[in-house]
Design goal:
Elements (H helix, E strand, L loop, with lengths): L2 H19 L1 E13 L2 E12 L2 H21 L1
Antiparallel strand pairs: 1-2
């Protein structure tokens, strides 16, 4: 399997995951103050939404790359 087909499959999988889950979240840790041995920190949960058009576009692009790769071989 060449690199083009691997990239196409990864794009399709990423597009499907983006459509199914709609986004992802992560925890951002910021350090507010450090006073000697005492350290105060704040954890903030952030959510990133993946637009529907981006998921569909990744699937279409991945499918196009698969078709392009199969015609060259």
């Amino acid at each position: 399997m060449n690199a083009l087909k691997i990239a196409a499959i990864l794009l399709i999988v990423a597009g499907v995951l983006g459509l199914v889950y709609g986004g992802f979240s992560y925890t951002k840790e910021t350090h507010e103050a450090k006073l000697g041995p005492l350290e105060l920190s704040v954890q903030e949960k952030q959510k990133v939404n993946v637009p529907v058009w981006a998921g569909v576009g990744a699937i279409v692009l991945g499918g196009g790359l698969l078709l392009l790769g199969s015609k060259k071989s």
